[in-house]
Amino acid sequence: MHAEHQEWIAMSDPQGHRIFTTGFDAVYPLYLAKLERKGRRQEELDAVICWLTGFDETELKRHLAAGTALSDFFEQARLNPAAEQFTGVVCGVRVEAIEDPLMQKIRFLDKLVDELAKGRALNKVLRS
Question: How far is 123 from 128, CA to CA, in rounded Å?
């Protein structure tokens, strides 16, 4: 990791959120388990992640295999411009009010997964 990147993480995360350095491969199965308990499919999770990040299936699989840290995962993402319009509450916090850009991106993904888990149609979750 570049020194400038480490400095950026330190500045953007004065409290040292562990989630920033957590591997995407560690959170993906948690998202999947949550959705499968609600009768949703892995293909839907992958569609949501690809829609948000701009990654294709190959890139997504590469990040999973590499255990890319969430900070690097979202740094490499081409965030869907529609994500900036997200509103609502995730983990008791309004996503539009989150000041840290990395935490906000992570919460955007949490919000999409929550919407799928609540039974919202995939096309509605993807704002299409």
Answer: 5
Mean pLDDT by 10 residues, the chain (128 residues): 38 62 96 97 98 98 97 96 89 89 94 95 88
Supply 59's token pair: 């890139």
Q: Are 105 and 77 in contact (CB under 8 A)?
A: yes
State the pairing for strand pair 93-94/89-90.
Answer: antiparallel
Q: How many CB atoms lie within 10 A of CB 58?
A: 8
How many other C-beta atoms lie within 10 A of the C-beta of residue 35?
A: 19
pLDDT at 112: 95
What does the alpha-carbon distance between residue 9 and residue 74 come to, in Å, rounded to a whole number?
A: 12
- The C-alpha atoms of residue 63 and residue 44 are separated, in whole angstroms, by 18
